[in-house]
Design goal:
The protein is an alpha/beta fold. It is 37% helix and 13% strand.
């Protein structure tokens, strides 16, 4: 059953009240060549109740420009240099885990917990409005106890389908230059 996204948003909006404490943590990874799209992307997903980590693989000069144009000066936007990664390599997974660790540390520092973590990049465009993203995730969060996550864990019976992938050796040179 395929349901149009607009219909899901309408159903969610009709049945959920988003609590003030509902927070989405966005990890925005900016690769070389993505710089022209950063401002447009952030302005599309920005909401003052969410928290953002923007990691630049290259050009950190965009920091002031990005935060200046956001509401409240982007006080909930954190920017840092990213470790070197190889697309699809283990360094990409390590970068994601590092960002998750950043948000967990931020919870300990500020006491502001997050309900969902979203890993994204300026290449993921167009996107839903921040209100629609918050509505859909708040709807899912409220409808299930415990709340759903969007990881899929493969049962042991499915492992044989992926056995050939586990036998391959992957070389990821960026790990040698990583701080992780």
């Amino acid at each position: 059953l395929l349901v149009p996204l607009a219909l899901l948003v309408a159903l969610a909006a009709a049945s959920v009240i988003i609590p003030a404490s509902f927070v989405i943590a966005f990890h925005v990874y900016v690769r070389a060549g993505d710089e022209p799209f950063v401002h447009r992307f952030l302005s599309q997903i920005y909401h003052p109740s969410n928290v953002y980590l923007v990691e630049f693989a290259h050009n950190l000069d965009l920091l002031d420009h990005i935060k200046r144009d956001l509401p409240d000066g982007g006080k909930n936007v954190h920017v840092r240099a990213a470790d070197a990664t190889v697309d699809g390599g283990v360094s990409e997974v390590l970068g994601t885990l590092s960002a998750m660790s950043f948000f967990i540390d931020l919870v300990e520092y500020t006491g502001k917990k997050f309900n969902y973590y979203v890993n994204t990049s300026p290449r993921d465009y167009p996107v839903l409005s921040p209100e629609n993203i918050r509505t859909l995730l708040a709807w899912v969060y409220a409808a299930h106890s415990p709340p759903l996550n969007f990881f899929r864990f493969a049962p042991r019976s499915e492992w044989t389908k992926f056995a050939s992938r586990y036998e391959q050796l992957h070389y990821d040179p960026s790990i040698a230059f990583s701080g992780t």
